[in-house]
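re: the backbone from monday

yeah here it is again, tokenized this time
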């Protein structure tokens, strides 16, 4: 038999369906005990009740919850070991030549607005870098300077994505790709990086999936690569990249390659930039000062679109429009980054030291993880992340979210849940701390697991 509560709920639902705010309020006033919250949430009401746009719901940070808990514990006097932020200057101070260049820019009075798309000195150094490292023929007009790669990702989606468009992303993905795509009305076609094959991309599967997706549907707007990868630390092989370029060429899909970790490669791995092999296939490279130049807080990144084909020219011009629609990125930081790019000798020393240390730290931590009864991981060859799988079946803990929460409360260790990158059952550790800190942390994680053994 239908009870009174259910009848009230049905009436409210009907009222919501016909979208009459007055009727809903009237019905609600006479059914005060029924929680309306869950109904209001389901996108029928917001435009009438909330000032926020529908699109704004895509902007969120799933990791915020853990940060809030960490802050609360800190304020209670707990010493939190933070292995969750990919922020190299906290472990390797930004090199003196970069800091001096910043101070020089300030002293030289370069404190006003610069050109919105970036100072010519920096754009020219970016072009020279690509010629030097990857043999790419381009000039300063191929590069647009942004407030980090983060801003570039927003520009790309704003420029390319219409409501209902799709883009190919690989899982696990860097957290912000998804909300940025959603914000502009796009949806992700998710391909998997294959853990069994060392997180490489199965290009046969990719080819097959694109073919079947194309039947009767619009082609995806772009393919987004992250190489080296955050969160897995994988460096994609040249063969895989060449296959992907072929696929992009065959189906005329724009390629975007986020190469922000291109200089942080070790364990004898060889990095290939898409710019080296995609000649003639429209593509964009994202990079900046944050990681290889150890200057995350400078907030300087860039997009390089070297091609002369119609698509590349169109996207490049639109990127300039986006840059011109706001004022410039941090001006002294742009001059400092330009000087850093030009100072190959100092940069060479700094990057060699940092990558050498990262290699030791990542390897020591990986070895310790792979001794664990509860964790296992593929050895990273790039960036500074480790992405172990948690053997949940051995634990009473049921999800990576609860694992991260428990570890934070009980051991005061902050790592990141894999589901933030689309891969539940994993956790991400930032392996920038000293070797001893990392290995003793894994031992503490093992003890935590022991206490929660199934
Ligand atoms: C793959 C990837 N892309 C982009 C970014 C953000 O870079 P930026 O500091 O230049 O905004 C990060 C930061 O961790 C990243 O891991």
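seq for it, each position gets an aa:
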């Amino acid at each position: 038999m239908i009870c009174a509560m259910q009848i009230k709920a049905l009436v409210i639902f009907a009222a919501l369906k016909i979208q009459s705010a007055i009727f809903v309020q009237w019905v609600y006033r006479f059914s005060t005990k029924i929680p309306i919250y869950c109904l209001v949430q389901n996108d029928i009401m917001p435009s009438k009740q909330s000032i926020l746009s529908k699109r704004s719901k895509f902007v969120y940070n799933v990791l915020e919850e853990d940060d809030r808990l960490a802050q609360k514990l800190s304020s209670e006097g707990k010493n939190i070991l933070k292995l969750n932020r990919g922020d190299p200057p906290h472990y390797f101070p930004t090199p003196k030549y970069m800091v001096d260049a910043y101070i020089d820019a300030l002293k030289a009075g370069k404190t006003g607005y610069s050109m919105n798309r970036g100072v010519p000195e920096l754009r020219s150094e970016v072009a020279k870098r690509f010629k030097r490292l990857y043999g790419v023929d381009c000039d300063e007009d191929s590069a647009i300077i942004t407030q980090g790669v983060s801003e570039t990702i927003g520009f790309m989606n704003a420029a390319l994505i219409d409501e209902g468009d799709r883009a190919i992303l690989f899982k696990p993905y860097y957290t912000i790709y998804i909300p940025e795509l959603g914000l502009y009305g796009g949806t992700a076609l998710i391909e998997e990086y294959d853990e069994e094959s060392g997180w490489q991309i199965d290009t046969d599967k990719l080819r097959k999936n694109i073919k079947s997706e194309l039947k009767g549907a619009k082609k995806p707007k772009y393919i987004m690569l992250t190489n080296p990868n955050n969160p897995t630390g994988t460096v994609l092989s040249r063969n895989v990249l060449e296959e992907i370029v072929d696929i992009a060429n065959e189906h005329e899909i724009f390629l975007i390659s986020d190469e922000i970790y291109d200089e942080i490669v070790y364990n004898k791995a060889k990095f290939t930039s898409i710019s080296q092999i995609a000649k003639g296939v429209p593509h964009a490279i994202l990079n900046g000062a944050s990681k290889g130049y150890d200057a995350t807080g400078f907030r300087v990144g860039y997009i390089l679109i070297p091609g002369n084909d119609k698509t590349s020219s169109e996207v490049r011009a639109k990127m300039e429009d986006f840059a011109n629609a706001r004022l410039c990125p941090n001006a002294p930081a742009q001059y400092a980054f330009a000087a850093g790019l030009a100072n190959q000798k100092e940069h060479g020393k700094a990057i060699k030291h940092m990558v050498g240390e990262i290699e030791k730290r990542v390897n020591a931590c990986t070895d310790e993880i792979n001794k664990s009864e509860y964790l296992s991981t593929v050895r990273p060859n790039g960036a500074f992340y480790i992405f172990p799988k948690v053997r949940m079946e051995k634990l009473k803990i049921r999800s990576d979210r609860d694992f991260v929460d428990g570890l934070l409360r009980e051991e005061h260790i902050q790592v990141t849940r894999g589901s933030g990158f689309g891969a539940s059952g994993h956790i991400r550790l930032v392996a920038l701390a000293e070797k001893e800190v990392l290995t003793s942390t894994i031992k503490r994680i093992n003890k935590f697991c022991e206490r929660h053994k199934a």
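Confidence is low (pLDDT under 50) at residues 1-46. The first strand starts at residue 81 and ends at 82.
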